[in-house]
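Predict structure. Input: Cytosine permease, 440 residues.
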Amino acid sequence: MASRHMSYWDMFATWVGANANNGTWYIGGVIAACGFLTASTTLIISGIVSYLLLAAASFMGYKTGLTAMTLTRASFGLRGSLLPSVINLVQFIGWAAVNTFIAATSMSFLFHDLFGWPVFGKPGGTMGLAVGIFVMSIFHLLSISLGQRSVQMIERIGIVLVFIFVIWESIVVFKTVSFHQIVTWRAPRNLRMTPGAAIDVLAAFNLAWVTAASDFSRFTGVRKNATQASFLGANLGLFWFAFIGVIATIGTAITLNHFDPNNSDPSTIASKLGLGFLAMIVIILTSTTANAVNLMSAGSALTNMTRRLSLTVSLWVVTLVATAVTFLPIFVASFLTVFTAFLDGIGMVLGPEIGIFLVDFFWLRKQRYEIEDFTKVHGQYWYRGGVNWIAIFVWAVSVACYIGLKHVPMVADTIGATFVVILISMILYGLLMNFAQKRA
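Output follows.
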C-alpha cells in the first residue's frame, strides 16, 4: 500500500493522456469516411462498452496489486500467460510505432520550417521523417527512464497543453467550415466505411488499453480512482480527440474539395489549416504522453515473459524495438494500409483474451485470487504443465469466429465482429471451465 501513490487526478490524467494523442486523432480521421453522424455514434457506443471493460480490468489491478500480464497467469496458466504477454508485447510496440510515425511526420513539417527540408510525402522527405523517428525515440527513452514516476509526471504536464491545443484546433476548424457542412458531408462512395467496420476499428483501438489497465490501477489504493477515473479519463480523451480528428478531416475535405484518408494524420491537417509551428510541437508532445503508457505496458509484458529482465531493462528493449518497427511503413506500403492491417490483427486476437481473463476473475473466481499461487509450480494456476488448455482452446475458437464473422455482411457491416466475439469467448470459457471443475 505504501507504493500506491496515484491520486484520482493522476489516474484520470493518465487515461486522458493515453487517448488524447495523435493516434486517436488519426482514428477519427479514418472513421470520418462513415460521415459525421455515423462516426460520432459508433465512437460513443464503442467507447462506453470498451471502457466499461477497462474499468473492470482496472479493478482487478486495484484488488490484487498485480500487473496485467501477471494476472493472466490465473486464467491461462503460469506458462500459458506467455500467449497474452506476446500479444501485449506486439500490440504495444505497434502502438508506440504508430504514434512515433505520426509524431515524426510532424517533425518533418518542423524541419521544413526550420531548415527547408522537404516534408514527408514529397521527394526527399524521408530524411526528415527518419531524423524525426530518432529524435522521438530519445524523447520516449527519457519519458520512461524513471518508470511509473516519470509517466505520472509527463501525464500531469502534458494533459494541460493537450487541452489548450484541442480547444484551439476546434476554434480554427469551425472558423473554416460550418457545423452544418460537416454534418451533411459524405465521403465518395468508393471510400465510404460501414458502421460495422468503424466499430471494429474503434474496438481494436480502445481494447488495447484494457490489457494494460492493471499496470496503472495497482498504484492506487482507492477503488474509485481505479475504476471511475479510468473510465471517465479514457472516454474523455477518446471522444474529444477522435471527434477533432473527424471534424478536422471532414473540414479539410470540404475546404480542398478532396477526401484522402491517407492524409488524415494531424500533421498534414494542421498544416493545411495553417496552425503552424506550435501545433506541431503539441502533436509531438501528445505522442510522448501516449507512448509513455504504451511502452510501460510493453515492458511489463516482456518482464512477465522473461521473469529475469528488470522493468527498466525491458522498457529500454521495447523502446528500441519500437523505433525499428516505426520505419516499416516507409518500405512496405502506405501508412494507412499498415495501420488498418495492424488494427484488424489486434481486434482478432485481443477480444478473446479480454473475455477470458475478465470472466475468470469476476465469474469463476468471484473476485478472489490467491496471490502466492501466481508463482507456485503445481499450485492452482498451474493447470496441466503450466497451461490452461481450455483458455487456449477458447481463444483459438474465438479467433476463428472473428475471421468467419468478418465475412458475414449482416454482422461485419452493422455491429462488427469484435464485441460479438468477446461475448462468445466469455460464455464459452465460463461454461467449459464450470464443466471441467464439476468433473474434477
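The chain has a mean pLDDT of 85.
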